[in-house]
Amino acid sequence: MKKPFNEIREIEIFIKEFQKLAKKRFQSLPDDFLTFKDTQLKMFHKQNIDNNGIFRISDLNIDCPIIYKVKKFACKSLKGKGVHSGIRIIYAYYQDEDIIEFIEIYHKSDKINEDRERIIRLFKNT
What CATH number does residue 22 fall under? Predict the structure, then answer.
């Protein structure tokens, strides 16, 4: 079976944030994240199906890669919430190379917005 993207990777700080959330509060997060990558991410980028859950962050003055924020993420650990779990995921999409790179994951009760300084630091020279 053909992979939907050439590569999907995670930066080190994303892995640490993910592990912390999965260990302490959202035990279903590893399975939920796999489901997200196999469905919503693929539908948005490969099938042009938009469920209004992924938004481009366009005011960073970064043209490449394109930075996205996921606002609809289903988490089984939060029963009854559906895709309104409050989990936010920030990722970069390198369109020409067809690569997804996960940058940040957090719960909106822990912080209001993405770490814009991190994003700019990572991609200001690309």
Answer: 3.30.2310.20
DSSP string, 42-80: HHHHHS----S-EEE--TTS--SSEEEEE--B--TTSTT
Please return the burial class of 85, using the count of CB atoms within 10 Å of its CB with bins 0-12, 13-18 and 19+.
buried
Domain count, the chain: 1
- Output the pTM of the full model: 0.91
Give CA angle at 82 (54, 1), nearest 5°: 60
pLDDT tens-digit series, residues 43-72: 999 999 888 899 999 888 888 899 999 999
Which residue is listed with tokens 């892995």?
Answer: 15
What values do phi and psi take at 108, rounded to 5? -65, -15
